[in-house]
Predict the structure.
Amino acid sequence: MKTSNQIWSPSAIPSMFSEHIEPEPHLPPAHVEVSRARQFQENSLQKFVRMARAIWHSGENLPFSTTLHVLDAVLRDKTVGAREALDPRHALAEPDGFCALLNDVSAVSLMDVYERGSFVDSGVASASCWAPAQRLVIDVNNPRLLKAGQNSRWQCDLDSDFEGVLTACNSARNVSNSPKLLHAYCSMFDTGIAHCASLRDAQGNQVAGLFGVAVGRVLVVQGEFYADESQRSTLYLALLSQLRHRGYLFADLTPVRAADFEFVEAISRENFSALVTGNLAQGCVGRWISPAVQQIFASAA
């Protein structure tokens, strides 16, 4: 894979481009791990509540017969092996796209999932693998997207305060991700595979954000948070512009279930997997640097 941003300074870039953002402290890796452990820690009661909410949410959205299908798939996984169960071609039709539970929640293990054309979610288990029959994607070169106008003035920050964006996205979920999965996303960020984008208003307040995993010239958006739809739309328009600039082809919004978002189109699981695997060698690894001026100006009212 080629590496983008071969020379960058994480402590200097933010202050150069924004008067509202202080330089990120350049902490030793050991201090970073301690900070993340504190931020993502979960006591026994919090774990119980998270798992109970996951079970309740599943019970509301999935019939009992679907639960039986999941249990059958888990047993199948134990007999035929995880590598076969992770294959998107073996995903269940009910619940749509379920492949397997993941015992190994590490960056390497998760990348094996993404490189196959699947994605990761959490719930009762620490992590699970999913590959729905249809993927909801946005073509970053869509002509309509190129003509889209923005209606507000914001600043978009890239790969700044990943842990903060990740925590905000996690809080916005119906069912929180497990601490193990959050740590895995951070490890992927450290290696230049996971990324984040956040939107700030004129006062420097963070009003929206998202994070995702880059694989095969596709960014799989794994989480998002926003106060209203206009902020969400502005954030995605800024993100898609940056993806286009960096040579990406698609943004996949399937994990955040954004079927209602403008410019989203559905493609089959098979076509999506072929798109990812066919572009693995052209994927980019490395931290994103915010452009010198990432301003979106208001159109004339």
